[in-house]
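Recap slide: PglZ domain-containing protein, sequence and predicted structure.
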Amino acid sequence: MPTTRLTRHADSMPGAIYNQLQAILQRDPEADRIALKWSEPLQPEVQSRGIGARDVRLIWCPSELAIREVLVTHRGPEKLVILSPFDQSQLGKDVLARLWKNEPQRISPWRTLEQLAHVQTIDPRLTRHQGRWMAEALLDGFDRFQGHIVFGEVLDLETAWQALAWGYLDYTAPSLELPSLFRWSLQENAARRIAALPENVREHLGEWLRPVLPRTGPLIETLLREGHAHHLLAVGLACSVMYASELEASGHLETQSIYSGRGRFIERYLNGYKVGSDALTEFGKGALETTRSLLREQGQKAVSQSLSQAEQILASLDFMPAAGLSPVLPGGLMLRLNALAQALEEGCEKRHVDIAEQAWQNLRTHWLTHETQRHDQMQRAEMALRLLRWLIHGTPSLTGTAHQMLSYYVSDGSFVDWARTQLWAGEDHEALARVYATLSELATQRREQQNRDFGRHLRAIARGDTLAESLVPVEQALDQVVKPIVAAKKPVLLIVMDGMNEAVYRELQEDLAAYGWIEVSEKAEAPPRCLVSALPSATEFSRCSLLSGSLRRGNATQEKQAFAGHTALRQLLSTRFPPLLLHKQDIQQPGSGGLAANARAQIAGTEHKVVGVVINAIDDQLSSSSQVVVKWSLQSIPMLRQVLEAARESGRAVIVTSDHGHVLDHHSQYAQTQEDTHNGERYREEGVIPSDQEVEVSGSRVLTPSQRAVIPWSEKLRYTKGRNHGYHGGGSLQEVVIPLGIYISASDPDRISGWTELPRQLPDWWAAESSASTIVEERPQADPSPSRPASKKKKKAVPDDRVPDLFAGDTPPDNSAPSVEQDATHETEETYPDSWIKALLGSPVYQQSLQRAGRSAVSAEQMCQLLELLEQGQGTVMETQIAQHLAIPRIRLRGFLSSAQKLLNVDGYPVLKTERESRTVVLDKASLKVQFEL
């Protein structure tokens, strides 16, 4: 069927004629000799126009005689259209017999619309109450919404308004809703569309808005009429502050200022139109909900203009002091950052952390803090708070044995240095930058004191005095760490991250878990392990000792030979495939940073049961002086990521370690040395008198030619004139402690026999006291009626205390496992701190959800712990806090959260959501109460 859309017509052709002809030819493409009743002469009286592939000839006939003449004389392929003022009663039967449908067609807008829209009937509400204006408006805009609106058999009022909104406003949402209106207002042409509305449509806008939005409709209509179509979201965000329920109680503004500001708003933006405060409050809440959705879908760029405009509105009305009440305005974020800076400063001066904790929680509830561009700033803020906690609550006595100090550095001190490194990166916010400098200095002073005390033990380490089992001398790593795994018939990949200290390792640990690597240990309650560097803590000494299995000094060639010839390992391996060591030149593809094909084949293969890989990314960065801050991850070290994936293919256990640590250059001082003295970056071999920042060491583990050296215990000294990012060779805890972790892939079915998974252990001060895992001094006896024990915070007596399973003492013996329903009901009988949690766990909807889930991975106790944590965090909690609070290994966390979502997200409503970019978990408490009928 050929198209019947009118492709060209003169401006002089009335739209009603055009629409009527279009409708007729759509209905009957073969129609000819069409007569239309039309009272006004056509100018010009004869016109030829095209309708798709057909042409029509329009002729104005002022008399019946003229009609007869046209019918007789018309020739050619053009379809004849006669316009005249006559109806059927005024024309002879012979004339009527020659016309299409045997009568002149009346031009009724509703009838025309009925034909164009192919509907059977029209809702009486339209013809009876709307009159001609709506039909004419629909006809005039038909081209713009044709093909987009489905009318069905009946053209009803809702569909008619939907068509008008599409055609005239470019409002394409399927229904009229406040969030959709806010989104529409963000279009660049929204204001132009409103300005270009025909007068008849503009006058009736309220009839579209008010029935569906009875409270906010009049407000929106007024804003549209007053020219604020493009600012709806901005005005709504401003209203969310001006009409916030907590505004008066907040004390940000005096009551008189609040009401006078609101009055000025009504005059300026509503032209004095009186709107109830409840409508303005609802309008503000709707703007916030829409903004939050847009932030999650598209990021801050989608709403940045509206945020700026909202702040301009507030500033013009003197409401900016209250912007801190907004969870989304940038000005509110700045006020919260200011509050955190002030609280941290006060915490440093008065040695308390409570106010800073509150300021941090308030900051985290601001939505812009979850944006990608704020991630680093938020991480620095959290690290600053952690340092404050550590300075006040987390530091032990500075004296201790070598075992205690080394173990404490692994369990706590390394996290301190991770936090210090983050703060050294700098901060855009001036007040925070100042307080970060203060915190860094306080932490550095404490670190220097600890390093000074540790310096007393360097002579014993140099002599090779016996250390605890968990502190492995670097030269014994192959025998004590690698050999047991090989003996258990598990292939091994030994990754040596040259120069990596314990702080960098802690940063990488997060990514290892995220990429599916589980840390394992021979003992479930094993104390934290590390290697202890040879002295000086430099590559030529310590790395060669690590890879040869004995104390020696050497280069890469000697390392290869010694690694391949290690006696204890060779006894466990095929003589054809001895231990294989790959250095930088072996693993890097020439001309790129990728893993070389041959190296990949050797790691992913199964012939070589023991493969060692040296990755120099960290050491290379230390030796540079560029002004680039590197965040250590599997993304920033692609070689490490590729090596790990190759190891996953062959089912290898992966040992991640280093040859020594390092100190970063932060206000280091150059120590002048004699020209004839052989120096490293952080050691002098002999012939000098040590200063009060240095220690002279000697013994079998000092690998200089004379087995003597002077090394600084302080992180502040260097022996090179030029500055680098960092240095190594000295005797600080950061350099002597070598990180050590053993991992298997989560997808590897062949585990190491007898070994167990290790949940990631974090210091007590790493998370807020309300959300940190607690140390239980004594486990309660199993009780048939499980109750929540009142756990007590216990200060660490020794550095190798572990965080126990919080739930082990809360569960009755599994003599006869109760059903899911019995278990849940039994637990919810106890008194939980939040009554709504008790109501949730005992609700019929939750019980049905449990039945659908079967034997869920989430117990009622765990669900209670999770919900309490979310309640404390005002609905938002970091994944790391959940993992620690519930003692769940990070690798198992996603599965746990997925199970929790299955229980809470009834009928697909997103009550519990995970935001992958920010690694946070969000609870919509309001939706939860609705879905579970609480």
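The chain has five domains: 6-107, 170-322, 330-456, 461-664+736-757, 771-934.
Confidence is low (pLDDT under 50) at residues 1-11, 770-833.
(End of recap.)
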